[in-house]
């Protein structure tokens, strides 16, 4: 089932999400719905807060980035078929150089900005079978994970921009929160009675 993606301005996007236990009701169904919603919106990642649920859950399928010819063959191989569910994730460490990459977000449509992040992360999480894992990622995979992880911490990519850039984007962000934007996927706007 396709879920509504909540737009910028919704308070759920600003909450630190709660842990999930293995007995969480209809978790497999929720994960399936999140995959379907993400693909319908042409995204590469989607976090539970983006569908209105303050839960420490996100899904990533970085496969679309594998076609980027600017990447090394090695990085293209890593991205190809990188499809994972992250439950109760915790980034243990971020290391390496800061590097900029143009990011966007399904909750903030039509705004893309360069964001600086560290290039390597160590992350602990549980997969969809609640098997605990600790893994190290770098490059674009690390970037996508960091972006989605921020969502479960109540952080948006626009928070990482300079104060000048934030001021320049303010009116566009206000329009998004009021639903004054056209998107080709189902969204729920905080300042409207009914989403579309």
From TrEMBL:
It is an enzyme of class 3 (hydrolase). It catalyses: N-terminal N-formyl-L-methionyl-[peptide] + H2O = N-terminal L-methionyl-[peptide] + formate. Its cofactor is Fe(2+). Its EC number is 3.5.1.88. The active site is at residue 148. One of its GO terms (molecular function) is peptide deformylase activity. Pfam families: Pep_deformylase. Belongs to the polypeptide deformylase family. Removes the formyl group from the N-terminal Met of newly synthesized proteins. Requires at least a dipeptide for an efficient rate of reaction. N-terminal L-methionine is a prerequisite for activity but the enzyme has broad specificity at other positions. NCBIfam families: pept_deformyl, PRK00150.1-3. This is Peptide deformylase. It comes from Croceitalea rosinachiae. The gene is def.
